[in-house]
């Protein structure tokens, strides 16, 4: 006789494999189709995320590179290259933190605010409407709930495995 607990475990692992593969595919398609949605503005999905983070009220005075990396859950190394390109394009400015000269603060420039608010956001909204058009509010709410639950579990795993000097930001 087959152990029913083992069957349930095997079924859950098969579903988990499918779920994580679909998340991987969604991440790749978000990058591809999302970047296409804002390419006329010279943005990628990564730059979209940076401008979105910097556009929040609580980031009005800018964000340190470390805080921005933690918020976006990327490595400082990956963020540095991205910020450098965005600074070159005039979307952000980087300056020494007046409170901690060792830290650098990233702020959105007037040009970056224009690109974000006037050009990119309407296209992002249209992108969301295309992707989520057949989702109900409940569908979106439940999806967000489960993604946040998975994210919390991944963050806990990341913190459990973080070594000394590791800021816990994934790449």
Number of helical segments? 6
Taking the sheet with the most strands, its summary is:
3 strands, antiparallel
Using the 3D structure, state the CATH architecture: Orthogonal Bundle
> Using DSSP, what is the number of strands?
3
- Overall morphology: globular
Tell me the domain tally.
Answer: 1
Which strand order do you get reading across the main beta sheet?
A: 1-3-2
Instruction: Name the CATH superfamily assignment.
Output: Winged helix-like DNA-binding domain superfamily/Winged helix DNA-binding domain
What would you call the quaternary organization?
single chain
Radius of gyration over alpha carbons? 19 Å
> Helix proportion of residues, in percent?
55-70%
pLDDT < 50 stretches: none
What name is given to the CATH topology? Answer: Arc Repressor Mutant, subunit A
Order of helices and strands: HHEHHEEHH
Q: Structural class of the secondary structure composition?
A: mainly alpha
Q: In what range is the share of β-strand residues?
A: 5-15%
Chain-averaged pLDDT: 91
Q: Any idea of the CATH class? A: Mainly Alpha
Q: How far is the first residue's CA from the last residue's CA?
A: 45 Å
Provide a concise account of the structure shown.
This protein has 171 residues and is mainly alpha-helical.
Tell me what you see in this structure.
- With 171 residues, the protein is mainly alpha-helical.
- The chain is globular.
- The mean pLDDT is 91.
- A three-stranded antiparallel sheet has the order 1-3-2.
- It has a single domain, classed as Winged helix-like DNA-binding domain superfamily/Winged helix DNA-binding domain (Arc Repressor Mutant, subunit A).
- The chain has helices at 4-38, 45-54, 65-72, 76-88, 110-132, 137-161, and strands at residues 63-64, 92-96, 104-108.
- The protein is built from six helices and three strands; from the N terminus they run ααβααββαα.
- The longest helix is centred in the first third of the chain and has 35 residues, at 4-38.
- A hairpin with a 7-residue loop joins strand 2 and strand 3 (104-108).
């Amino acid at each position: 006789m087959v152990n029913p607990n083992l069957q349930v475990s095997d079924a859950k692992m098969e579903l988990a494999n499918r779920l994580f593969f679909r998340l991987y595919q969604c991440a790749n398609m978000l990058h591809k189709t999302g970047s296409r949605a804002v390419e006329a503005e010279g943005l990628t999905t990564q730059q979209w995320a940076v401008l979105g983070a910097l556009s929040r009220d609580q980031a009005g005075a800018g964000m340190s590179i470390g805080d921005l990396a933690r918020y976006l859950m990327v490595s400082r190394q990956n963020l540095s290259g991205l910020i450098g390109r965005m600074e070159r394009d005039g979307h952000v400015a980087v300056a020494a933190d007046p409170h901690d000269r060792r830290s650098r603060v990233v702020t959105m420039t007037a040009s970056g605010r224009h690109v974000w608010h006037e050009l990119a956001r309407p296209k992002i909204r249209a992108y969301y409407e295309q992707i989520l058009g057949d989702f109900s509010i409940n569908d979106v709410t439940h999806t967000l709930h489960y993604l946040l639950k998975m994210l919390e579990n991944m963050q806990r795993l990341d913190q459990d495995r973080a070594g000394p000097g590791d800021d816990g930001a994934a790449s």
